[in-house]
Amino acid sequence: TQLLEQSPQFLSIQEGENLTVYCNSSSVFSSLQWYRQEPGEGPVLLVTVVTGGEVKKLKRLTFQFGDARKDSSLHITAAQPGDTGLYLCAGAGGGGADGLTFGKGTHLIIQP
Amino acid sequence: NAGVTQTPKFRILKIGQSMTLQCAQDMNHNYMYWYRQDPGMGLKLIYYSVGAGITDKGEVPNGYNVSRSTTEDFPLRLELAAPSQTSVYFCASSYGGANWEQYFGPGTRLTVT
Q1: Which 3-state string (H, E, C) describes B45-110?
Q2: N or C terminus: which one in chain B shows less Cβ crowding within 10 Å?
Q3: What is the mean pLDDT of chain B?
Q4: CB B100 to CB A50 under 8 A?
Q5: ∠ CA(B9), CA(B12), CA(B18), 5° rounding?
Q6: Distance CA B15, CA A93 (A)
Q7: What pLDDT score was predicted for residue B1?
Q8: How far is CA A88 from the centre of its chain?
């Protein structure tokens, strides 16, 4: 069974600060995705990383896939209240057709 | 293009009742999924389908059934509802490809009392 561990589980910081969220596993994934979920809504895809060592930037968000494709990180620069939400990482196994393995998520609160 | 739609948005069931959660997508995706999300537990896969007429069990299938008669629709059936099935249910679809990116519906919040 593939598992994804996310840390921290909860994070509350002030507007303007930087933060990093981690997603770790002992398993190799063919791709890893990050989703953001707001209360009462479904997860929304932010980014997919595929290649070991890959770095992708989405405005103030930087995503990195570990060299061994077992872990990933999400770094937010100058966090804003609009970044508040539940951040989920999810990995696709060898096939991917049989669904994603999700981490438990990081609850992020950015205080004005 | 509505994406993935789910009905109902909320439902309260009594123990032992049955219901069907509806899911539809208009993106012509072959792959569809049902997940449940419990507080602090992430999303767990209930059932999935790789195309019309083909379904398979996920991690937590007990107490649920699915069917896939068309590409667009993937209903989830709860028989003999139990309090342990109180959860938020999400339907998702994917075109597959190399990355298996999934697109989620808005969810159904189900309470069994």
Answers
A1: EEEEEEECCEEEECCCCCCEEECCCCCCECCEEECCCCHHHCEEEEEEEECCCCCCCCEECCCEEE
A2: N
A3: 94
A4: no
A5: 100
A6: 36
A7: 74
A8: 5
| One-letter identity of residue A54 | E
| Alpha-carbon gap, residue B109 to B60, rounded angstroms | 17
- Residues A74 and A77: their CA atoms lie apart, in Å, by 10
Interface residue A92 vs chain B (CB under 8 A): yes
The pLDDT assigned to A95 comes to 63
B15 vs B113: CA distance, rounded Å:
6
- Give the Å distances, CA to CA, from B94 to A16, A82, B71: 35, 27, 12
Would you call A31 and B100 a contact, using CB atoms and an 8 Å cutoff? yes
Burial A11-49 (b: 16+ CB within 10 A, else e): beeeeeeebebbbbbeeebebbbbbbbeeeebbebbbbb
Q: What is the DSSP string of A31-79?
A: EEEEEEE-TTS--EEEEEE-STT-EEEETTEEEEE-TTSSEEEEEESS-
> Which amino acid belongs to residue A107?
H
Which region holds residue A50: left if phi is over 0, alpha if psi is between -120 and 50, else beta? alpha
A99 touches chain B (CB under 8 A): yes
Mean pLDDT of B42-60: 94
CB nearest to B100's CB, from A44, A100, A104 = A100
d(CA A46, CA A55): 13
Compute the distance between CA of residue B81 and CA of residue B41 in angstroms, rounded to an integer. 21
